[in-house]
Amino acid sequence: MVLDTATAQRQVLDAADALFYERGVQAVGMDAIRSASGVSLKRLYQLFPSKETLVEAYLDRRDALWKSMLAEHVEAATDPRSRLLAVFDFLYEWFQQRDYRGCAFINSFGELGTVSPRVAELALEHKEGFRRALGELAAAAGARDPEQLADHLILLSEGAITRSAISGTADPAVRAREAATMILDASLAS
Amino acid sequence: MVLDTATAQRQVLDAADALFYERGVQAVGMDAIRSASGVSLKRLYQLFPSKETLVEAYLDRRDALWKSMLAEHVEAATDPRSRLLAVFDFLYEWFQQRDYRGCAFINSFGELGTVSPRVAELALEHKEGFRRALGELAAAAGARDPEQLADHLILLSEGAITRSAISGTADPAVRAREAATMILDASLAS
DNA sequence: AAGCGCTGAGAACGATCGTTCTCTGCTGGC
DNA sequence: GCCAGCAGAGAACGATCGTTCTCAGCGCTT
C-alpha cells in the first residue's frame, strides 16, 4: 500500500493525536504510532525527524482545531453577550466527548514543561491565544475593563477544563457559565 | 551509614517529592531517587515495594502538606469573609515559590490518570477535599448558596493554579481574588 | 533487460526503565 | 573466635524506549 505524503502525514497525526491525548506523550512509543497509523517507521521518521517534532505537530494541530471549534460556537451566536457566553457552551460540548481527557496543552506542559522549552512555549501561546479571543469578545460585549474580564473568564474556563477532566463530569462548564454570567453582568458599563 | 526506618522513609519521600514534582513521575527513575535520597535501592524497595506505592505516598504527603498550608492561611484571618479570601492569598504565596510547577495532582492525573486508577482517585479526592473546605468557608461567610459559591470559587482557584504554572507568574492569584470578591459579594444573602 | 532508487517490514542498537540478585563486609549472640 | 543474618553497593535482568540499519522487492528510466 503506497501513500502520498499528505495522507501519510494525516494518518500519523491522527494516530499521534489519539494516542498522545489518551495516554500522554511519554507513555506512547513511536512503535505504537506506527502500528496505529499504518505508516512504516522509516516513513514516519522522514515525515517527522524526531518524536519532539511529532509532538510539536500534534500540539499545533490541536491548537488550530480547538480554535476553529471555539470560533464555530461563537459565530453561531448573534448578540455580543451570548457570543461571550458561547465559550462556555463550547466547553460543555467539549467536556461531553467520550474521550475527553482535559487540555492537551496543560497535560503536555505538566509532563514535559520543565524539560522541553518548546512544549512550554506552545502551551503558553495556546493559552495566550485563548485569552486574546476572550479579550475581544469581552470588548465587543461592552465590558468596562475588557482585559480584566478576560482574565477572570479564562480562570473560570481553565478551572472548568481541569475539574471536568478529573471529575469526569461536564457539569463544571455549567458552573463556569453561571459564574461568568455574574462577573459579566457586574463588569458591564453602567 | 545506617538509618532508622523513619528517617530513611523521610529522605526517600523528600527526594521523590522534589523530583516527581519538578520533572514529572515518568521522567524520574528509581535510580534518581536512590541517588538523591542516599538510600540504597534495596532499602528503598523495602520501604516502598513498587514505584506506584511511592507515587501514592508522594501524593498523600502533598495532599496533607497542602491542606495544612491552606488551613494555616485561613486560620490567620479572623472574619469569615477574609477567611474565604485568604484562600487566594495562599495561592499567591504558593505561586511565588521559585520551584512552583502547578498542582502535583493535576500534573500526575494528566500523566497517569488513564493508566493508573489509583492516581485518578487520589486526584479526585484531593480536589474534593479542597471543594469541601471552600464549601465550609462559603457557608461561614453567609453565602446564599454555599455549594454553588464553592463551585464557582474552585473554578477560579484551579484556573489560577494552571495559568500560573504555564505563564510563570503569580498574577493569576490576584486576578482570581478579584473575581472571587465579585462573586462573593454577589452571592451574599441580601 | 538491466540497473538504480525508493519502499515497507522489521531486526538491531544503545540507552534506560522498574525490579531483583549477587557479593562483600559488618554486627551481634554464643 | 566464629558463624548467622542483615546491610549497602551496584551488577544484572528482561522489557521497552527513540532511532537507525538491513534487506528483499517493486517501479521507473535507458
Walk me through what this model shows.
2 copies of one chain form a homodimer. Chain A is an all-alpha fold and 190 residues long. Chain A folds into 2 domains: 1-49, Homeodomain-like (Arc Repressor Mutant, subunit A); 55-187, Tetracycline Repressor, domain 2 (Orthogonal Bundle), CATH 1.10.357. The first copy, chain A, is built from 9 helices and no strands. In chain A, helix 4 crosses helix 5 (80-96) and helix 5 (80-96) packs antiparallel against helix 9 (171-186). Chain A starts with a helix and ends with a helix. At the A-B interface, helix 6, helix 7, helix 8 and helix 9 of A face helix 6, helix 7, helix 8 and helix 9 of B. The first copy, chain A, binds a DNA duplex (30 and 30 nucleotides) through helix 3. Chains A, B: This is TetR/AcrR family transcriptional regulator. Chains A, B: Pfam families: TetR_C_13 (PF16925), TetR_N (PF00440). Chains A, B: Residues 6-66 form the HTH tetR-type domain.
Tell me the layout of helices and strands.
2 copies of one chain form a homodimer.
Chain A: H1 5-23, H2 30-37, H3 41-47, H4 51-76, H5 80-96, H6 104-112, H7 117-140, H8 146-167, H9 171-186
The structure holds a DNA duplex (30 and 30 nucleotides).
Shape of chain A: elongated
CATH class category of the largest domain in chain A: Mainly Alpha
C-alpha-based Rg of chain A, rounded: 19 Å
Major sheet of chain A: size, sense and barrel closure? none
Portion of residues in helices of chain A? over 70%
CATH architecture of the largest domain in chain A: Orthogonal Bundle
Q: Spell out the helices and strands of chain A N to C.
A: HHHHHHHHH
- How many DSSP helices of chain A? 9
Terminal Cα span of chain A? 65 Å
Number of strands of chain A: 0
Class of secondary structure makeup of chain A = mainly alpha
Protein name (chains A, B): TetR/AcrR family transcriptional regulator
Keywords (chains A, B): DNA-binding, Transcription, Transcription regulation
Organism (chains A, B): Kribbella karoonensis
Domain HTH tetR-type (chains A, B): 6-66
